[in-house]
Amino acid sequence: MNLTEKTVLICGGAGFIGSHFVEDAVQSYKRVVVLDLLTYSGFIENLDHVEKSFDFVQGDLSDSKVLNSLFSKYSFDHIVNFAAESHVDRSIHAPNEFLSSNVIGTFELLKFSMEHFSFLEEDRKKDFRYLQISTDEVYGTLGDSGKFNEKSPYRPNSPYSASKAAADHFVRAWYHTYGLPTLITHCTNNYGPRQFPEKLIPLMILNAKDKKKLPVYGTGKNVRDWIHVKDHCYGVSLALKHGVPGHTYCFGGECELQNLDLVYKICDFMDKKISDFSHKSLIEFVEDRKGHDWRYAIDLSKSKSELGYAPRFTFESGLKDTIEWYLSNENWIKKTYLGVKE
User: Fold this and answer.
1) Helix or strand (DSSP H, E) at 189
2) Do the bridges between strand 223-228 and strand 256-258 make them parallel or antiparallel, or are there none, so unpaired?
3) What pLDDT is recorded for position 2?
4) CA distances to 1, 47, 97, 114, 159 from 90, in Å
5) Which residues are designated catalytic?
6) Quick check: is 277 in a domain?
7) 102, 154, 222, 293: least buried by Cβ within 10 Å?
8) What is the pTM of this model?
9) Does residue 174 belong to any structural domain of this protein?
10) Is 334 a member of any domain?
11) Do residues 74 and 7 make contact, with C-beta atoms less than 8 angstroms apart?
12) Residue 30 belongs to a domain
């Protein structure tokens, strides 16, 4: 599949994960089009460093007028949907926003994608792909053993994961009912530069930097598998190139950690930067999240055997680089997280 002749639409491309994919896509595709609403966690500043050109459209995925204009102007070969509300805590307090963005937005994108696909020449239809970015959270929670895989049943436990599960089901239906060549990828918890600091790792880094409390849910024993954002994007690229339409693929970092142990790692690193202060003294255990899933972990067997995927970042090096990035990018923090206008 020669990507240098193809046009890709990246929805949610100004967000954390999407912006990293854009950074890679401009090196491969003939034309890259980014659609993003630029909500509280999507920023055009996330794309400032992209070296090659791309087309940017600000708009809501659930707005049919925006999509009609977009599909009238461009002829896409690949569509990758990163666009989503993704913070579990926000979904608990405002589930309607997750329904609109994650479900209705995906539904509208599928409708326009199918119409677009139906008018493509036969040779372009063979290479066309619609790829939906999902999450391991649609599978629910694990006990102390076992791992999720592509055949795990859907058992979402939060409004966020329920909205992502619903979106996945629509994607599957568009493949089986209408023949749209779709793919779905599931990944574990992402980390890396430019992640909005409502998420665990950047929140802990910035709070530790400012000597603020480090809030840890419950006992801190919940377990997550961590994947570097670049490894996730690498997996998505492999799925687009080698994935079989109608299939799903799971990606993880093969790094399971209890939340408290992760916070300890961040504190230990910060102690080396500021040797006269113990950052672990900032840890504060807070009331557990409602419906807090106990453990996530991914079986990579299918992605390894069919796509050739394997994580390339070790967690120690990836976390070190991530901490260093947040400590040295004060301007990004001011413009995005803090909303400071120049």
Assistant:
1) strand 189-191
2) antiparallel
3) 78
4) 39, 25, 9, 31, 9
5) 136-137, 160
6) no
7) 154
8) 0.96
9) yes
10) no
11) yes
12) yes
Residue 242: give its domain's CATH number.
3.40.50.720
Enumerate residue ranges in the chain where pLDDT < 70. Answer: 341-342
Residue 197: phi and psi, rounded to 5, are: -75, 35
HSE-up (13 A, CA, CB side) for residue 261: 12
> Phi and psi at residue 62, in whole multiples of 5°?
-90, 0
Q: Which residues contact 7 (CB under 8 A, 6 or more apart)?
A: 29, 30, 31, 32, 33, 74, 75, 76, 77, 78
Give one DSSP letter per residue of 11-74, joined into a string: ETTTSHHHHHHHHHHTTT-SEEEEEE---TT--GGGGTT--S--EEEE--TT-HHHHHHHHHH-
- The answer to whether the beta carbons of residues 152 and 216 sit under 8 Å apart is no
| Cβ contact 110:174 at 8 Å | yes
Q: Residue 240's closest CA among 76, 85, 118?
A: 76
**pLDDT value of residue 340:** 72
pLDDT on residue 150 = 98
Q: State the pLDDT at residue 342.
A: 60
Direct distance between the N- and C-terminal alpha carbons of the chain, in angstroms, rounded to an integer = 44
Q: What is the pLDDT of residue 22?
A: 98
Q: In terms of Cα–Cα distance, which of 22, 111, 130 is closest to 63?
A: 111
Side chain identity at 170, as an amino acid letter?
F
Cβ pair 91, 292 in contact under 8 A: no
- Unique residue bearing structure tokens 């913070």: 87
* pLDDT tens digits along 246-258: 999 999 999 999 9
Phi-psi group of 12: left, alpha or beta (phi > 0 → left; psi -120 to 50 → alpha; rest → beta):
left
Two tokens at 258? 């209890």
Tell me what pLDDT residue 341 has: 66
Residue numbers of the domain that contains 251: 3-195+225-256+290-314
Q: Say how far apart CA 332 and CA 38 lie, in whole Å.
A: 15
As given in the structure block, the two tokens for residue 32 are 């890259």
Closest CA to 106 of 173, 50, 157: 173
CB 3 within 8 A of CB 24: no
